Amino acid sequence: MAQYDVIIIGGGPGGYNAAIRAGQLGLKVAVVEGRETLGGTCLNVGCMPSKALLHASELYAAATGDEFAKLGIEVKPKLNLAQMMAQKSESVTALTKGIEFLFKKNKVEWIKGWGRIDGPGKVIVTAPHGAEMTYEAKNIIIATGSEPTPLPGVEVDHKRIVDSTGALALPEVPKSLVVIGAGVIGLELGSVWRRLGAEVTVVEFLDRIVPGIDEETAKTFQRSLTKQGIKFKLGSKVTGAKSMGKAVELTVEPVAGGEAEVLTADYVLVAIGRRPYTKGLGLETVGITPDKRGVIANDHFKTGVGGVWVVGDVTSGPMLAHKAEDEGVACVELIAGKAGHVNYGLIPGVIYTAPEVATVGKTEEELKAEGVAYKVGKFPFSANSRAKINHEGEGFVKVLADAKTDRILGVHMIGPNVGDMIAEYCVAMEFGGASEDVARTCHPHPTRSEALRQAAMGVEGWTMQA
């Protein structure tokens, strides 16, 4: 029976980063993964393929709209959806092969198959051909991720009614697409198909989009998406769906009560969120019981059962790949006797639409609820020279700082490339920085990053370029 210091169940961002770190620290480590490729949902059917389509569709929209013409570039573009999907797949394959290389480099073993715990320190792996093998480990890390949350009354048939995986591989551009759920996944994928020519309607139970992010940012974001042609039905619930050949009929009712209406679309995307994946894990063999949402509780990644740890989407906290990565690394460092730690107050969130949305730290609504006195600095991209020249003047940067200490408490952005730029504020906040620290740091000109500095200046009222 093979024995390991660490066996990780799941080869997604939490699992593979934990494995690489374990290898670096000299631990004998194996990852159990049943997919044909490593990388989990993120690399295979989530973050990475969606970014490939977002990028391609943005270029297509620029070429077919008036953006290229304004720049003096005259083209007659033609959509080749099959090639767009092919290049997406090529990129994904390159990334998953890259993880295999990193495993070899760091002496991580990939046990191919589906794993389940079989009592303390034991993992049974069912190989693709059906054979079972038992492995022993001093430590087991559960990193099995999440799956799309189903919606009662709307059965995903993977043909006309799809989840996020299906929406990444539609065989044609729909004439009409209904997205159920105005969260990150629904809006990103909805925007892809809108740019490629679909009429997109988003149905959301709440009276706002992207719940949880700063309210002003969300309202600005919705206005931007509306301008792009996406329609919204907020405060609405879907109570039924009927596939009718090449169309789907959805019954939609106002949450507050009122008459139902029927929406007809070529395709429907169910994107109401994700839930932890714990099916068939053998948790009962070690006395672990997930909560009613399927979440496995943790205390510094410990499950409460000796030698069993948990990271990523399958436990508490935001379901984000970078959060899972941080947890995987910290968990292994604790196993190795080091001081692993994750600062949950500074996990950024990004929506990779056009414009992008990026946030970190507290929202205004949270600070008001907590009774924290704060100041606001805000700067529009319309006043940023580089954004203006690039015809990217939509959006703003907003900085929230403690009224007494000036410590940065939250930052919320909507605009060009903000998904990358938010990292500057993550670093500043990790070091306990004040808005003045950013305001007095020289930024290169002309760049979009100057908007970050100007917004910080605004906290004390000395914004200079607007």
Secondary-structure blueprint:
Elements: E1 2-9, H1 13-24, E2 29-33, H2 40-45, H3 47-64, H4 67-70, H5 81-105, E3 108-112, E4 114-117, E5 122-126, E6 132-142, E7 146-148, E8 161-162, H6 164-167, E9 176-180, H7 184-195, E10 199-203, H8 215-227, E11 231-233, E12 236-244, E13 247-254, E14 261-265, E15 267-270, E16 274-276, E17 308-310, H9 321-335, E18 349-351, E19 356-361, H10 364-370, E20 374-380, H11 385-389, E21 396-402, E22 408-415, H12 418-430, H13 435-439, H14 450-459
Parallel strand pairs: 1-2, 1-6, 2-3, 6-17, 8-15, 9-10, 9-15, 10-11
Antiparallel strand pairs: 4-5, 5-6, 7-16, 12-13, 13-14, 18-19, 19-22, 20-21, 21-22
Helix pairs in contact: 1-9, 3-5, 3-7
Structure notes:
There is one protein chain. The chain is of the alpha/beta class and 466 residues long. It is built from 14 helices and 22 strands. Strands 1, 2, 3, 4, 5, 6 and 17 form a 7-stranded mixed sheet that branches. Strands 8-15-9-10-11 form a 5-stranded parallel sheet. β9 (176-180), α7 and β10 (199-203) form a beta-alpha-beta unit. α1 (13-24) runs parallel beside α9 (321-335), α3 (47-64) packs antiparallel against α5 and α3 (47-64) runs parallel beside α7 (184-195).
Provide a count of the helices: 14
Record field, number of beta strands:
22
Sheet with the most strands, sense and barrel status: 7 strands, mixed
Which class of the largest domain in CATH terms? Alpha Beta
The coarse silhouette is globular
Residue-averaged pLDDT, rounded?
97
| β-strand amount | 25-35%
Unreliable spans are none
Give the fraction of residues assigned to helices. Answer: 25-40%
| SS content category | alpha/beta
